[in-house]
Amino acid sequence: MTETQQQPKGEPAPLVEQVGAVLGSVEDVEEYLTGVVHLVAEATAGCDAVGVTVVSGERPFTAAYTTATTLAIDAVQYALDEGPCLEAHRTRSIVRADLDEASERWPAFSAAAADFETRALIALPLTARDGSVGALNLYARSTQALDAVDLPKLTATASRVGEVVAAGLAVVEARQLAGQLEEAMASRAVIEQAKGVLMGKHGLSETEAFDLMRLQSQRSNVKLRTIAARVVEEATGRPAAAGQAAHRLDAESTGARSAVVD
Fold first, then answer.
1. Beta bridge partners of 97
2. pLDDT at 73
3. Residues 118, 145 contacting (CB under 8 angstroms)
4. Of the given ranges (121-135, 167-181, 183-197), which has the lowest mean pLDDT?
5. How far apart are CA 51 and CA 30, in angstroms?
6. What's the rounded mean pLDDT across residues 235-257?
7. Cα 207 to Cα 219: distance, rounded to the nearest angstrom
8. Other C-beta atoms within 10 Å of 231: how many?
9. pTM for the full predicted model
10. Which residues partner with 55 through β-bridges?
């Protein structure tokens, strides 16, 4: 958790500043949100528990919580696709819920939550730019316990958390995309090398060499990159995982060569 500015000695930074951070991995996001829920719980009188719902690809999950007892009420909302946490995220508005009087608003959720200790809940959207990445959720066992919470402070805090999480998830997704692109480029390089081996060894055209490997990939249900790697490994004298596949390519390439000549 990083503070955004120095505070006078003995005076804590405002909550919204305490939740500022720069995240670079999934582990950073998890650690950050765990810190956030405990900070919010400590700063909010009447609150028995705090959790964070993160929505990724329309799939909600509880990313952090102060007590495991709130996981059940979250799970019910996710399973039924209704409830205060999801509504706050979808509408990008603060949702206050007295669960004893929520049957008309969320009938299925209200019925399922009847036996839970939590009776009051405030959900604040984790807004980021023009959207939301989830909700900051405050739980209480008493219906009046959250009546006096500082909503402006919590709203600003939730917005800051939303910005941090959205930026962190964007970094994670960008790195995953970069990794996928690097892997694709590596696969392509191996395939190009294998094509060169088959062209030089059997006098095939570039298209014929590729089609030969593609055919072997389909017949053996082995990825094209793996077939190509085996061809290159055998040609360079390095141990091949399955030399038989390369031998089959040799035999089939002779047939392909004959067909071309004919």
1. 121
2. 92
3. no
4. 167-181
5. 12
6. 51
7. 18
8. 28
9. 0.63
10. 60
Average pLDDT over residues 86-92: 97
DSSP SS3 for 69: coil
Higher-pLDDT residue of 88 and 247 is 88
CB atoms within 10 A of CB 47: 20
Q: Which residues of 119-156 are buried (b: 16+ CB within 10 A; e: fewer)?
A: bbbbbbbbbbeeebbbbbbbbbeeeebbeebeeeebbb
Which tokens hold the place of 209? 């060499």
Q: State the Cα–Cα distance between residues 174 and 192, nearest whole angstrom.
A: 27
Distance of CA 20 to CAs 11, 90, 160, Å? 17, 24, 7
- 3-class secondary-structure state, position 177: helix
d(CA 66, CA 207): 60
What six digits make up the tokens of 124? 């604040």
Distances (CA, A) of 156 to 2, 15, 16, 161, 239: 17, 9, 6, 9, 60
What span, in angstroms and rounded, lies between the C-alpha atoms of 256 and 262?
10
Residues of the chain with pLDDT > 70, as a percent, come to 76
